[in-house]
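Q: Sequence in, structure out?
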Amino acid sequence: IDTLDQRSRFSREDLDVLASVACQAAVTLENAQLHETVLREQVFERDLALAHEVQRGFLPAESPAIPGYRFFSFYQAARQLGGDYYDYVALSGNRTAVVVADVSGKGIAASLLMAKFSAETRFCLAAEPTPSRAITRLNRVFSGSGWEDRFITLVVCVLDPKRHELTVVNAGHMPPLLCTASGTVEPVGEDCSQLPLGVAADADYPQTVIPLSSGDCISLYTDGITDAMNRQEQSYGEQRLLDLLKINNEGADRIGRAILDDVKQFVGECPQIDDMCLVCFGRESE
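A: Exactly. Output:
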């Protein structure tokens, strides 16, 4: 608003009218901007919801049907997209690979890396004759992918139901916990645990083989279980998990539900701070 006519200068009344109109215009513009922001957020939320469904599609739709064995699984991301992962991969010789992994970080970046990891893991396990060679190959793939400051902890348990044997490979993950029918609980394969995937391209990943007796059960989990915090900012912890397993050792279903119930009771109303994944499987009692 301007004038070049010195005889028609603006008065104080003109300024008051301009100010009142400007305030109304400012409110209108702000409302329009807020409306556009809301629309963008709604589109983003729809995209996240779709991505969440796509990511859930990478997880198993059902547990393996293996005579004499039972399976239990649970997955819950801290946000709409998470970096935890589990899978059941059918292999030759009626074997089944049980995979649990944790991608560093959370959110969109971790979920994208998890999607790539899902495909590569299945391919390597199917292409190599042993779990050791499969995970060594998988590590080389991720070490050369250019994912700076990203790594993956992983544990693979290949079940041979004919021999009742379990072959374990661990890449920097919490060791599987073996619950025996007699009530003892012990970590499996701690001595052969190696670096997480993507840290060193030349790393080798040895395997260890353990027998599964009648009633034995294996529990695999991510750190979202043990790092769950209560209002006093105390972590659930590995020791509480071990103590719980010593008194709940009757089948994969009971063990899995007992762990989840105890974590929920410990946390109370506190928000979930990390992705949570839990897989329990074992041999039925004869």
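Strands lie at 69-76, 84-91, 95-103, 152-160, 165-171, 177-179, 185-187, 208-211, 217-221, 276-283.
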